[in-house]
Specification:
about 70 residues, alpha+beta, two-stranded antiparallel ribbon, 3 helices, 2 strands
């Protein structure tokens, strides 16, 4: 049950403009801030993709939260 959305600035500029936080980051740092990685609406990374350890930790946290809800 994990949903992932990926937006491309060249193909979906409206998605970038619609997010105030993203718009501010792009205005301040240009495209050098890309990629922007959000997890549950919170900015986790900018300017690089997550490494394997980061992805693993995020997924463990997500699944641990699901187990608590069950």
């Amino acid at each position: 049950g994990i949903s992932v959305e990926r937006f491309n600035l060249a193909q979906q500029p409206a998605a970038f403009a619609a997010n105030a936080g993203v718009k501010i980051l792009l205005q301040a740092g240009g495209t050098a801030v890309l990629p922007l990685i959000f997890w549950d609406g919170e900015l986790k990374l900018k300017g690089r993709y997550p490494n394997r350890e980061e992805r693993t930790a995020w997924l463990h946290t997500a699944f641990a939260g699901e187990e608590k809800e069950a």
